[in-house]
Amino acid sequence: MKIVVLAGGLSTERDVSLSTGSMIYKALKANGHQAVMLDVYLGYEGDIAGIFEEDRDWAAQVSSVSTENPDLETIKALRTDGDKSFFGPNVLSVCQMADCVFMALHGSNGEDGKIQACFELLGIPYTGTDYVSSAMAMDKGITKDIFKAHSIPTPSGIRLKKGEVESEKVPFPCVVKACCGGSSVGVCLAHNEAEYEAAKEEAFRYDDEVIIEQYIKGREFSIGVIDGKALPVIEIAPKVGFYDYKNKYQAGSTVETCPAQLDGEKTAQMQQIAEKVFVALRLKNYARMDFMMSEAGVIYCLEANTLPGMTPTSLLPQEAAAVGINFGELCEKILAGAFK
């Protein structure tokens, strides 16, 4: 098939997206597809007539722009017409030429449903869930409302808009996070008033609304769900601190155990909740749910990720591998799901 792997963009997770895209692109090429990797914002200014037949390392070309701690203002400066359209040169045209777009985007303008809605209007097939469920899952406040409506256990908390005064307080320690952030960007743990004020300031750098919720001390887990069926549970144990951006993507900073060392009852319970979240948020194709289990053994679902990472350290590929699905097969499974 002719496939566009869409990555990059202008979110705070740009570098993670490029790493995800590169892995997917290489796997699709190895599987015999005519794959092209494009940066959704920077696009491609060459001749697109035979773009899928070109003998070019598209992953190397795209990733060379910026792969680590990107300065988004510098990326924006690479396009003089960036204020007119988020899509870079020829992006939509090449996507319309493809059989499918493999979404490797993370964060805003990628995981929030906007691009999915555009593709729906243009009749472009794509991987991942649709625009409605993408938007709902991206907003942690809406997600928590849906969890409560469907009796899905989740930490208690409040939403707070910039400039608003709290009508109630969440006891310390508490977690402060940007409402629509990802990869733990803008997430802080506060033990006292000073840390709390600093945490709010940090979270408001990324969003005009934040979530403040009870801190669950215990063990952290994640579960991928493909076509409504849960994969094995993976446990995440950071060597230092909590599972923040650094611990997620720096190799060796976290101990990941899959399948997690849980008894059969707890494993089944967590997988059932993950599948219930998949249905409650109207998710499609694939997703990954994050969990905490308190020291007393109480399970809490934190959120759903509609385009989970597919980097060398990502959780979903490890979970798939635990049931004998290698990375290339995982990409094929996701690709097939896009046409269901």
Radius of gyration: 20 Å
Helix tally?
12
The termini sit apart by 16 Å
Unreliable spans: 243-249
H/E element sequence: EHEHHHEHHHEEEHEEEEHEHEEHH
How confident overall, as mean pLDDT? Answer: 91
Q: Please state roughly what percent of the residues sit in beta strands, choosing from under 5%, 5-15%, 15-25%, 25-35%, 35-45% or over 45%.
A: 15-25%
Helix content: 25-40%
Please summarize the sheet with the most strands.
Answer: 6 strands, antiparallel
Question: How many strands appear in the DSSP assignment?
Answer: 13
Structural class, from helix and strand content?
A: alpha+beta
From the spread of the alpha carbons, the general shape counts as: globular
Give a written overview of the molecule.
It is globular and about 60 Å long. By secondary structure, the chain is α+β, with helices and mostly antiparallel strands. A hairpin with an 8-residue loop joins strand 5 and strand 6. About 2% of the residues have low confidence. The strands form three sheets. Strands 8, 9, 10, 11, 12 and 13 form a six-stranded antiparallel beta sheet that branches. Strands 4-7-5-6 form a four-stranded antiparallel beta sheet, covered by helices on one side. Strands 2-1-3 form a three-stranded parallel beta sheet. Helix content is 34%, strand content 21%.
Structure, briefly:
It is built from twelve helices and 13 strands.
Features of this protein?
340 residues, alpha+beta, six-stranded antiparallel sheet, four-stranded antiparallel sheet
